[in-house]
Design brief:
single chain, 148 residues, mainly alpha
């Protein structure tokens, strides 16, 4: 399985995976552990990316703060393709600049996307956890309605 890279792909996959075949309860019970592993892997993959992104964000924030203070070397500026910052800013002004920094906000948006996927997977896993009970209740309902 290719790991979904966005929430829409993940939601489409789950909409297919969550369908229960009422004609084969044994197959559905066996499918639970497969689906559990599948969504646990997706969640773990995106959690790992989140942790990496948190570190990358902190590093970039420190770099951008140094940039606004005018502390970067010419080599560092060239590496990132930035021009030397010319304006002297106070610490509160730098904090505001960091809040509206395009580079940092792009990173935050990517982070939010991974957080959404992790949250979605957590809820899918809760649903799968409850599926055993749901299937058991379905079997009992079928027995009651068929007169067994």
């Amino acid at each position: 399985m290719k790991t979904p890279v966005n929430i829409d792909d993940l939601m489409k996959e789950w909409s297919q995976d969550k369908v229960i075949d009422a004609t084969s309860m044994e197959k559905e019970l066996l499918k639970i552990s497969h689906l559990h592993g599948k969504y646990l892997n997706v969640m773990s993959f995106h959690r790992h990316l989140l942790r990496k992104m948190e570190i990358d964000y902190k590093n970039m924030k420190g770099l951008r703060e140094d940039y606004y203070h005018g502390r970067l070397t010419q080599d560092e500026l060239e590496t990132h393709g930035w021009e030397q910052w010319q304006t002297r800013l106070s610490n509160p002004e730098i904090a505001r600049k960091l809040d509206t920094d395009t580079e940092l906000n792009k990173m935050l948006l990517k982070r939010v996307a991974h957080e959404e996927i992790v949250f979605y997977c957590e809820n899918v896993l809760k649903s799968l956890h409850n599926r055993t009970w749901d299937l058991g209740n379905f079997v009992k309902y079928q027995q009651l309605t068929s007169g067994r």
